[in-house]
Specification:
The structure is a homodimer. Chain A is built from two helices and three strands. Chain A is of the alpha+beta class. Chain A has one domain: Phosphoribosylformylglycinamidine synthase subunit PurS (Mth169, Chain: A). The first copy, chain A, has a three-stranded antiparallel sheet with strand order 2-1-3. The longest helix of chain A has 12 residues. The first copy, chain A, starts with a strand and ends with a strand. At the A-B interface, helix 1, strand 2 and helix 2 of A face helix 1, strand 2 and helix 2 of B. Strand 2 of chain A pairs antiparallel with strand 2 of chain B, so a sheet runs across the interface.
């Protein structure tokens, strides 16, 4: 089974990477870009039947830093 | 409008970051992880009515390196 995990910085946490992208889009002439946030997406190939609780554990232990990042996952 | 852009390394392009995650999950005792690919997700706040062609241009010019990365975007 294939699982896609999205990891984003929590609201309120400074995102310099996103800020750099916003600035660069402006410099390239794109207007109306009022905000950019950059995160990670991790695609996992897991054994069929891996329970959600195991995936949550993977996220909490390794994939996301839950102090500053939020995550969500979906089976694809 | 809010647009979410997903940027992933193309199939066949070595993904050392994903490989490191796969290795770390194994070291943490998670079994059955047969593959990991890591990519980026970029959330853009754009002016309402921004056409898809403009978003495609942003992706091609800045957000993705189309030689080694593929992208897709969705309005959320």
């Amino acid at each position: 089974m294939k699982v896609r995990v999205h990891v984003m910085l929590k609201a309120g946490v400074l995102d310099p990477q996103g800020e750099a992208v916003r600035h660069a889009l402006g410099a390239l002439g794109f207007e109306g870009v009022s905000g950019v946030r950059q995160g990670k997406v991790i695609e996992l190939d897991l054994a069929d039947g891996t329970p959600d609780s195991t995936i949550t554990e993977m996220c909490e232990k390794l994939l996301a830093n839950t102090v500053i990042e939020s995550y969500r996952f979906e089976t694809v």
